[in-house]
Design brief:
Layout lengths: L1 H10 L44 E5 L20 E10 L4 E9 L3 H13 L3 E2 L12 H6 L25 E3 L7 E2 L29 H8 L2 E3 L7 E2 L2 E4 L3
Parallel strand pairs: 2-4
Antiparallel strand pairs: 1-2, 2-3, 5-9, 6-8, 7-9
Helix pairs in contact: 2-4
The structure holds zinc ion.
Zinc ion binds next to β5.
GO molecular function, one term: peptidase activity
Protein name: M15 family peptidase
InterPro entries: Peptidase_M15C (IPR039561), Zn_M74/Hedgehog-like (IPR009045)
Length: about 240
Amino acid sequence: MAFVVLASVSCGAQEQGASPTTSVPVPPASDPAHETPRPVAVTPTPKPTGPPPFSAKVSRVTRDRLPYSWKAGCPVSYRDLRLVTLTYWGFDDKPHTGELVVRKTVTDDIVTVFEKLYDQRWPIRQMKLVDAYKADDYDSIDADNTSAFNCRRATGSSSWSKHAYGEAIDINPRENPYVTASGDTAHQNARKFTERPIKGKGVINPGDKVVKAFARVGWEWGGYWSGTKDYQHFSKGGG
Ligand SMILES: [Zn+2]
């Protein structure tokens, strides 16, 4: 019986209508008629289209790529920095390619965290080097730009910022502002994001997945500082 079923399938149209009981029990291979290729209607099966998987590339950064953010006298040579080109999930619910510059010793940390964020579809507004804003931190923040390396002093201090070492990153700075102890932010467009916890796209709250993802690679969140809060800021080892 199993043979009959097989034969009726492989014979196709030629034996259509023949009932199993009238099939001739001859092995298909011995009948030349069976060697005739059976016409097959090819209907392309639409492949499920989904976003591409996360990808990241780490490359050396040339002096030309940092015309404003790096200068002689910075605490880290540009030769010790790396350009990380990676996929991020946008506020428009689509994948995008962004660029970050970080110290070469922390590229694995950054790739590990951003792969998690992408897989969780955690949204980021945009990600360009701060040089797109002539290394002006205020303008980059006002544009809600996520960026890392910038050879500058810490806010309100004469010491180098962790950003000057390529060991800090600011994420969605409009939704996650730098807030003074009295509750102020320098950015008008960030006023409604000064409280925590709050709901909102790209907002970082205490205990969030993004905070945990950074903590797992040893990066601390500025939202846990006492007094002044820097909700956009993560840095290797804190500070
Ligand atoms: Zn920062």
